[in-house]
Design brief:
mainly alpha, 68% helix, 12 helices, Ferritin
Length: 284
């Protein structure tokens, strides 16, 4: 699909994305994210949309640090997040919680892309608002299932790796597109089928419901990574950069995690990775 000429959306829209990013209550943030996206889809005028969002945005404390998030879960280094067997109710809940935490962070990442980077084509903002809304749907599905197991979001410790990369790339939109959707989020394309295989072995109704939710997430995430690939390629072309060579530079500069096989080649191809890029992953 061709990219439209670079134009910023109304300032009110970017300010609304920032306001939603600042919300700390997960349910309120998800609801406001959906409202923001529906406002764009239905071409609501920014003033009317602001009025529709008013009940949620009224809950935003002043000068809240980014991103807005609840007091729990406790954030710990990745190696301190305990691993539990999904064959137990507690272990399955902990696994669902870890994925829900990724999806909650993904809402924040998409909203951050909307407000932080001005002067991009209008399609850029529409793409990332849609991603934010889909991530909010994923979070809602996972939280509902987590609650069915007697737990809730915040009950288990989690780590902050996704947002840390967001901060590292806050001054470079090309690095953001390269290292968040195309690297950290693309890892989900590789990991999800492996998680689903484990859950199928567990075989309980709760585990199989989790497999169904992950099917939905995987389908959507292929599209999200494709959006990252699209805008990374567009930015490299605009700057006269070789995408693969520049990716290597960005990965070193920002200490991106080393990606390890197995890779979901079919999903990555569907998301727009070239054979050259897939070969690079195997040799990285």
């Amino acid at each position: 699909m061709p990219v439209t000429a670079p134009t910023s959306p109304p300032d009110a829209l970017r300010e609304q994305a920032l306001a939603v990013l600042c919300l700390s209550d997960p349910a309120v943030k998800a609801e406001a994210t959906h409202a923001l996206w529906q406002g764009v889809v239905n071409q609501h005028d920014p003033v009317a949309l602001e009025k529709a969002l008013a009940p949620q945005l009224a809950l935003r404390p002043p000068a809240l640090p980014l991103p807005g998030r609840p007091d729990r879960p406790e954030l710990v280094p990745p190696m301190q997040v305990p691993h539990r067997s999904p064959y137990t109710n507690e272990g399955l809940a902990a696994l669902l919680h870890a994925i829900a935490h990724i999806e909650f962070n993904a809402i924040n990442l998409a909203l951050d892309a909307v407000w932080r980077f001005p002067g991009m084509p209008s399609d850029f903002y529409r793409d990332w608002l849609r991603v934010a809304a889909e991530e909010a749907t994923h979070f809602g599905l996972l939280r509902e299932h987590l609650q069915s197991l007697g737990h809730d979001y915040g009950d288990f410790p989690a780590h902050d790796g996704l947002w840390e990369m967001c901060v590292k790339t806050q001054d470079d939109i090309t690095a953001r597109m390269a290292l968040v959707p195309r690297t950290l989020e693309a890892r989900g394309l590789d990991a999800t089928p492996l998680i689903q295989a484990r859950l199928r072995k567990v075989g309980t109704p709760a585990a199989l419901r989790a497999v169904e939710i992950l099917d939905r997430i995987l389908r959507d995430e292929i599209g999200h990574v494709a959006i990252g690939n699209r805008w990374y390629g567009w930015l490299c072309a605009r700057q006269g950069l070789d995408p693969l060579a520049h990716y290597r530079t960005l990965a070193r500069t920002h200490h991106a995690p080393r990606l390890k096989p197995p890779f979901n080649d079919a999903a990555r191809r569907e998301a727009g990775f070239s054979q050259q890029e897939l070969d690079y992953l195997l040799g990285a």
